[in-house]
Amino acid sequence: MSIIETLSRDAAQAAKTLAQVDTQTKNTILLDMARSLRDNSFEIRSANLIDLASAEQAGLSHAMIDRLTLDGDRIEAMAHGIEIIATLPDPIGVQRDLSTRPNGLAISKMRVPLGVVCMIYEARPNVTADAGALCFKSGNAVILRGGKEALHTSKVIASVLQKVLKQYGLPASLIAVVPDPDRALLMELMQQRDTIDVIIPRGGEGLINFVTEHSKVPVIQHFKGVCHLYVDKDADLDKALALLLNGKTQRTGVCNALEGLLVHSEVAPKFLAMAATALAKHQVKINCCANTQQYFAAAQVLSDEEFGQEYLDLELAVRQVKDFDQAVAHIHRFGSRHTEVICTENELTAKRFQRTVDASVVMVNASSRFSDGGELGLGAEIGIATTKLHAYGPMGLESLTTEKYLVNGDGQIRA
Amino acid sequence: MSIIETLSRDAAQAAKTLAQVDTQTKNTILLDMARSLRDNSFEIRSANLIDLASAEQAGLSHAMIDRLTLDGDRIEAMAHGIEIIATLPDPIGVQRDLSTRPNGLAISKMRVPLGVVCMIYEARPNVTADAGALCFKSGNAVILRGGKEALHTSKVIASVLQKVLKQYGLPASLIAVVPDPDRALLMELMQQRDTIDVIIPRGGEGLINFVTEHSKVPVIQHFKGVCHLYVDKDADLDKALALLLNGKTQRTGVCNALEGLLVHSEVAPKFLAMAATALAKHQVKINCCANTQQYFAAAQVLSDEEFGQEYLDLELAVRQVKDFDQAVAHIHRFGSRHTEVICTENELTAKRFQRTVDASVVMVNASSRFSDGGELGLGAEIGIATTKLHAYGPMGLESLTTEKYLVNGDGQIRA
């Protein structure tokens, strides 16, 4: 049996043990994990320095190195994240009644773990702790396959968590790390559909496409975030401006930042004049339709096909729309089903937007930047799904579970 | 653009229209579809005769020809099935509140269609009507790719449904039939991950494996049904016998029939004597462990590796287990996560079984034969998932939907 087969089989075996552990024990273990991360801060940072040295030698980008770096604050944030997971309600075992059939059979559903979750990610060592804790709380084993850039750090973090598991008599293979970033092992990992229940890739579009292309295990995908703010004719324009600036400038390199602004023609003259001044102050580069060029100095005019870019930078696409329907049509053509926002004081228009727009998060009068698991009250998130099967949008604990049917009778047979 | 690309793109486009149609209109259309199937009974049966003639010429098995045949009763059953779907609650638009955040943001979830569902199936023409109606009610477009054996019948059934859609100004491509059973088209269909949201194969293990192997679109799998009855030491043995006979003999060629019997050693002598007589009357062939051979004349003794067969016939595997844990271990090793049954009067043991056993339907004192969508109160079913992602067990309307997040604020921005 190969390394990967052994790892996956052991994880599946370990998951069966964990499914029987009660909530209180799981929470106690999580709190111990948090404490243990703090206690081992020195070891984690030492391993991180090795990864950082290789990263600099390899000439990785500043953004990549930033993501890779773990300082005291970030380790504290990881530990605190695990403490929050300990306070969240346990989805496992939750039961809901469906019906009692005419023959007396009582039908209900019970929430159960998926089994084995495999995370494939790049250079974020915090995923190791976040995913480890979320999967543990939701009763799943996790197989962590991080990029080679963060491998030393990930291994130390995982070994800290594993030590705690062992103290409670639980198998270390509940939180398993693929020990080698070799691509052949990754390919083999993606074939283990008898033992792995789901693969969640986190990273750039290239990684997601690669995994989707090669995996025989079901994949939950998180594609890019091309999020829009639609300023309706009934918008409060001051609110709209605040949402625009927050969505575009508060943090740019993230998938829930705004990439597009749509403005109803009735309020376009007034709002675009306000927006132009404010965006210029933040040095936001503007790409716009021919109708709105007049408001922006040095804007680049986009053709109809050039909308829909994920800039991940101080750059924004702007378009005037003649009405609600044109706004929704634009969103459906160019959006990525991540997060879409309307600014309006008209409740009917707001409801219509939320019902009509096909995106995982549809907001009224709120910044797109709230679109993440923590801000939506899910605790940490394991990812944000932009495809619809199983999960759609930020994925918390419940997304790592499924439901089985329970049928209770007193000897009923089928006629 | 190829036939398949056009078909899939049209279906995705049509799905957007359907997402906006209200429940009452959908139900009216469904009732019209049922009426129209009855009115076109002659045309459907004529097409069916063509398929039956080819099937006989091709020497298809009796079971296959039986599945293919549509008589008046079966057309009536199809029509009635659609009428039941019209009476079921519409999952679309159902909203549940999650929380109000400290900053005042109200978080909720709204149920929405998946988009485009693709059914790949073999010779059952009724799938065309069932899947067409279930997908329509749940707001999805459906692409139907049936086997060549039933193609004439399926096309006529679909065209009857499409005519009704057109009468209401809806696109016929909501219920699309792949017009040609060519394998190259099937391969192409399974690559359309930009337009098709899920593929549900229905048929034998070969078909399911083929689709899983080649599809780039997410697949919901329905593998075989290796269902067990565990007769606990606290079982009512008369109930147990009734459950055994019903599960094994009421209908044999189905996935929710019993294939295995596990008996606690304490009640084995008494129960196996009862079972042997009754099973002999029904001419059930017995394969058993060495410990139980004494009870069955002419039984074949199975080695440890030979359990876990899906017989789909009057044939049963019997094993004596020393306790509850050994029963569960056997189920986890040899079961197919379809349906597992315990017979016991001990409520604690029953609860423990339902919590512990990893299967999509876990029953107490009820026949495994109840494990289908209709019997569980879901109305018709689109399939039975034996993998856990998205759906697990019989899939009704809700399984054809997902939930998006709604966020409602009054101008909140992120600090």
UniProtKB/TrEMBL annotation, chains A, B:
Class of the enzyme per the UniProt entry, highest EC level: oxidoreductase
This enzyme catalyses: L-glutamate 5-semialdehyde + phosphate + NADP(+) = L-glutamyl 5-phosphate + NADPH + H(+)
Under Gene3D superfamilies, the record lists:
Aldehyde Dehydrogenase, Chain A, domain 1, Aldehyde Dehydrogenase, Chain A, domain 2
Its predominant location is: cytoplasm
**Statement: the UniProt record of this protein carries the keyword Transport:** no
Q: Where in the cell is it found?
A: Cytoplasm
Q: Which UniProt keywords apply?
A: Amino-acid biosynthesis, Cytoplasm, NADP, Oxidoreductase, Proline biosynthesis
Gene Ontology BP annotations = L-proline biosynthetic process
Q: Name one Pfam family in it.
A: Aldedh
Alphabetical list of InterPro entries matching this protein: Ald_DH/histidinol_DH (IPR016161), Ald_DH_C (IPR016163), Ald_DH_N (IPR016162), Aldehyde_DH_dom (IPR015590), G-glutamylP_reductase_CS (IPR020593), Glu-5-SA_DH (IPR012134), GPR_dom (IPR000965)
Q: What is its EC number?
A: 1.2.1.41
Q: In which pathway does it act?
A: Amino-acid biosynthesis; L-proline biosynthesis; L-glutamate 5-semialdehyde from L-glutamate: step 2/2
Drop me one GO molecular function for this one: glutamate-5-semialdehyde dehydrogenase activity
Q: Name one GO cellular component term.
A: cytoplasm
According to the entry, every stretch annotated as the Aldehyde dehydrogenase domain falls at 7-285
- NCBIfam families the UniProt entry points to: PRK00197.1 (NF001221), proA (TIGR00407)
Q: What does this protein do?
A: Catalyzes the NADPH-dependent reduction of L-glutamate 5-phosphate into L-glutamate 5-semialdehyde and phosphate. The product spontaneously undergoes cyclization to form 1-pyrroline-5-carboxylate.
Q: Which family does it belong to?
A: Belongs to the gamma-glutamyl phosphate reductase family.
User: By what name is this protein known?
Assistant: Gamma-glutamyl phosphate reductase
Q: Which organism is it from?
A: Shewanella loihica (strain ATCC BAA-1088 / PV-4)
